[in-house]
Amino acid sequence: MAEAFQSPRGFHDILADDSRRFRRVSATIRRILESHGFEEIVLPVVEFADLFQRSIGENTDIVQKEMFIFKDRKGRILALRPEGTAGAVRAYIQHRLWTQRPYHRLFYEGPMFRYERPQAGRYRQFHQIGAEVFGSESPAADAELILMTEKILKELSISAEIQINSIGCRKCRPLYRKALLEFLEGVSSNLCRDCIERKEKNPLRVLDCKVDSCQEAVANAPATVDFLCDECKDHYKILREYLRESKVKFVENPRLVRGLDYYTRTVFEAISKKQETAVIAGGRYDYLVEELGGPPTPALGFAVGVERLMAELGKEGDQRHLYLVIPLGDALAYALRIAESLRKRGEAVEISLRRGGLKKQLEFADRIGASYAVMVGEDELRGGYYTLKDLKTGEQKRIEFGSSEDEG
Ligand code: HAM
C-alpha cells in the first residue's frame, strides 16, 4: 500500500460521534444567542493580513507568531482569520451598519486558524462562535454578555469560573502603563527573553506570559483597577452591581488583561476547572471601530471555543435517534415503503446495506448506535405489518403498517 496521507499537524477531523457533540454545543449556544436578539452574519475566512495587525496588535503573540499568512496571485498579503472580531468590525464599517439602526447584536460561527503549538484543547484550526454588540456603552451590555456566558456554561453543565476585570480607557491606561513599566524594570532580570522585548513595546502583554518565572515576577505588579479614571471606575462598579442583581457568579481577577490589544474597560474569561484554560473569553473594544476607519462606536463581545467546550462534555446526550430498517428475504420494496413513511413522520431512517442474517444485522444496528431496528421480512410483508425492536430495552412489538400506532 502507498504511504497514506495524514492531516497537517494541528488540523483535525471531527468524526461522526464528535460531530454530534459539536452540533449539540453549537445548537445550544445559537439558541441562547438568538434568545437575546443576536443575528447571524457569515464572514469570510480570509481577510487582508493588515486588518489583524491593526486590530489585534502588532506586538501580540497572535500577530507575531501565529498567523497563517500568504500572498495571492497578485501579491496581496492575506491571512486566514485567527479570530472573528476584526472581521466583524470590518464588515460593520464596510456595510455602514450604523446607518440601519442605533445598535447591533451580531454573531458568527466558523473555523479560526492560529499557528500555535498543538496540544490538548489547542489546535491550529479550531472553531469559535462569537457574539459582538456594536453601539452600546452601557455596562448593561457587558453584564448581559457575561450573563449569557454563564447561561452557556450552565446549559451544557460545564464547571468554569467567570473572571472579570477592567483595564481602563485612553485616559487612564497611560497612567497604568507607566506604573507597570516602572514595576517591570525592577523585576526585568526574572523575565523571559520575549517579555524583555514585550516590556518595551507592549508592557501589558507581560502580564499574560505563560512562562512560570514571568508569572512569579509579575505576581505583585500594580493592578489595572487601581488606576481607573472616574468614568471607568463607575462603569466597572455598575457592571458588578448588575451582575450581582442577576445573580451571576464571578470573581474579580486584577491580573486579567487578555492577549489581544483592542480591549478597553471590561475584560472577562470563563476558565475551565478541568482544562485550566479559557473556554469562553471576551470584553469591550470601544476604539476599534474608529481605529479601523468607522465612526466612534463603543463595542464589545465574546467568543466561545467550541472544541474546548466539547472537551468538557461527556458522551451522554449524543445518542442517535435512528431507525435501522432491516429488509429480510424478499421484502425490500415493502421495507422501502415503510422507511419512507417513517421519514414522513420526521424520523431519521436508514435502510441497512449490511448483508447477512438477523443476528448480524442487529449487531450492526448496535454498532451504529441506532435506537430502533425495524425488521421487515416476508411474514411482515404478507401480514402488512413490521416488527419494531427498541434496542435500548430489547422490547419488541408488531406494528400494523398504516395503523394509528404506525403513524405515531
Ligand atoms: P481569544 O481569547 O483569543 O479571543 O479566543 C477565544 C476562545 O477561543 C478561547 O477562550 C478559546 O476557548 C478558543 N481558542 C483560542 N485559541 C484556540 C486554539 N488554538 N485551539 C482551540 N481553541 C482556541 C478572541 O478570539 C476574541 N475575538 C474574543 C472576542 C470577541 N472578544 C470580543 N469579541
Please provide a written account of the structure.
The structure is a single chain. By secondary structure, this protein is α+β, with helices and mostly antiparallel strands. It has two domains: 16-172 and 228-313, Bira Bifunctional Protein, Domain 2 (BirA Bifunctional Protein, domain 2); 322-400, Rossmann fold (3-Layer(aba) Sandwich). The chain has helices at 16-35, 49-56, 61-65, 85-94, 139-155, 173-187, 193-201, 204-207, 212-217, 230-245, 288-291, 306-310, 332-344, 358-367, 378-383; strands spanning 39-40, 46-48, 69-71, 77-80, 104-113, 125-134, 160-166, 251-252, 264-272, 278-284, 299-305, 322-327, 348-351, 372-376, 385-390, 396-400. It has an eight-stranded mixed sheet, sandwiched between helices. The chain has a five-stranded mixed sheet with strand order 13-12-14-15-16, with helices on both faces. Strands 2-4-3 form a three-stranded antiparallel sheet. The longest helix has 20 residues, at 16-35. The mean pLDDT is 95. Histidyl-adenosine monophosphate binds at residues 83-85, 114, 116, 121-123, 126, 128, 130, 132, 278-283, 301-303, 305, 307-308.
Pick out the low-confidence regions.
none
Q: What does the average pLDDT come to?
A: 95
What's the CATH class of the largest domain, please?
A: Alpha Beta
Helical percentage: 25-40%
Structural class: alpha+beta
**What is the straight-line distance between the termini?**
50 Å
The CATH homologous superfamily of the largest domain is named: Bira Bifunctional Protein, Domain 2
Query: How many extended strands?
Result: 16
CATH architecture assignment name of the largest domain: 2-Layer Sandwich
> For the CA atoms, what is the radius of gyration?
27 Å
User: Per DSSP, what share of the residues sits in E-state strands of 2 or more residues?
Assistant: 15-25%
The side-by-side strand order for the widest beta sheet comes to 1-5-6-11-10-9-7-8
Number of helices: 15
